[in-house]
Amino acid sequence: MSESQLPAFIEHLLSPAAYPHPAPDVKLLQTHISYVLLAGDFVYKFKKPVDFGFLDFTTLEKRQHFSEQELILNRRLSPTIYLEQVTVNEDHGTLALNGAGQAVEYGIKMVRMPEEKMMANVIKRGELTAGMLDAIVARLVPFYDQADGGEDIRQFGTARSVSVNVLENFEQTEAFIGCEALSRKQFDAISAYAREFLAREELFAQRIADGRIRDCHGDLYSANICLADQVYIFDCIEFNQRFRYCDVASDAAFLAMDLDFHGLADLSEHFIARLTAASGDDTLRPMLNFYKCYRAYVRGKIGLFTAHDPKVDEATKKGCLDQAARYFKLAAQYAGK
């Protein structure tokens, strides 16, 4: 997207003079749902006015609400990163960050984390250690213990509720069967495995009885973890409760799958072993492959969606298809195929 296509408030915030602190080199990053501005020692994040069904940021009031939720929910694991909600205000045609006049946009202000300490970059350099995973476990266990697990949340752990999230993935990817990333054989094998597992309602009931359905993170993988002076786990899912109210096993399986994907099976096993020992969770393992398969398939689906976006270039399309193919292959392995 060219600068002329950006919203006026983002164009304004691309200027270092827009900030009340040093910001010599402002950098804009975009996702399908956010504008992210790296400005000196801080990060400013604003939601795009989009509606994808599973999230709806189309009104200013909704963006205000979900920005507030993002602060509240992420402060559970990273209270020192998530600083405050910010506004962009307009006064007589002049825009200002936290200024006078009417609020035209809402966002959040965060502390900027060191890029070299991001877990994904640590993995790329081959520097991830068992001790680092132990530190992650030490953050997660009390988090899960303290997370809300009331009756309304427990209902999201039933086989019927879990099936809503799992089976919609197959509906959303059926049109892509036969593309270079997803074969009919893989699709049939993975979907059959998922349906067979979902029929084992007693396993899901046991997890509910054990109190393992919690208000979790929902997006727990290396892209959202920083291994700096302490472990920072950020960017949880704030926009849809059904993706965050889940079995602790589903949350943990995402990170374990991510480690498998990067060829770190031994560290993946170490992470699960430490987590189950530290939490006393002796019914997690029977759920692990099922939730790993689900998480791998979701990542493959996202790759397909991105690759088939007409706005992406050929290099991006190829990279996304290659990655999606790897995720679907991994999902098939979890399904025993």
Mean pLDDT: 95
Low-pLDDT sequence parts: none
Provide the number of structural domains. 2
Shape: globular
What's the CATH topology label of the largest domain?
Aminoglycoside 3'-phosphotransferase, Chain: A, domain 2
| Tally of separate helices | 13
Largest beta sheet: strand ordering: 1-2-3-6-4-5
Classify the helix fraction into a percent range. Answer: 40-55%
The H-and-E topology, N to C, reads as: HEEEHEEEHHHHHHEEEHEHHHH
Radius of gyration computed on alpha carbons? 21 Å
Residue share in β-strands: 15-25%
Distance between the termini: 41 Å
Largest sheet: 6 strands, antiparallel
**Secondary structure category:** alpha+beta
- What is the CATH level 1 assignment of the largest domain? Alpha Beta
CATH architecture of the largest domain: Alpha-Beta Complex
What's the total number of strands?
10
Describe this protein's structure.
There is one protein chain. The chain has helices at residues 8-13, 60-74, 119-124, 130-146, 151-154, 159-173, 184-198, 201-209, 241-244, 248-261, 265-279, 285-307, 314-334, and strands at residues 27-30, 34-39, 42-47, 82-91, 94-97, 102-111, 213-215, 225-227, 231-233, 245-247. The protein is of the alpha+beta class. The strands form three sheets. It has a six-stranded antiparallel β-sheet. It has a two-stranded antiparallel sheet with strand order 7-10. The radius of gyration is 21 Å and the shape is globular. The model has no long low-confidence stretch (mean pLDDT 95).
